[in-house]
Amino acid sequence: MKQIPIPSIPRTEQDEIVRLLDIRVGALDLLHRKLDRQEQLLTERRQALITAAVTGQFDVTTASGRNVTDGVTA
Length: 74
What we know:
Type I restriction modification DNA specificity domain-containing protein; about 60% helix; mainly alpha; 1 helix
């Protein structure tokens, strides 16, 4: 067993790899938090729109849908 070579890289290179991975993982964590927050806001907005429609705060029969039918032919 002692004769089996075990490859290794210098400690400074290992430290640099760890530093770069920490930066990348940090960026991914930030992105994940932002996506979670966006999902929460969209869920809140959806619920607010449903509540407004049900309570009659706006007329859903006249809602335009913001060009949803552009390019659609009958």
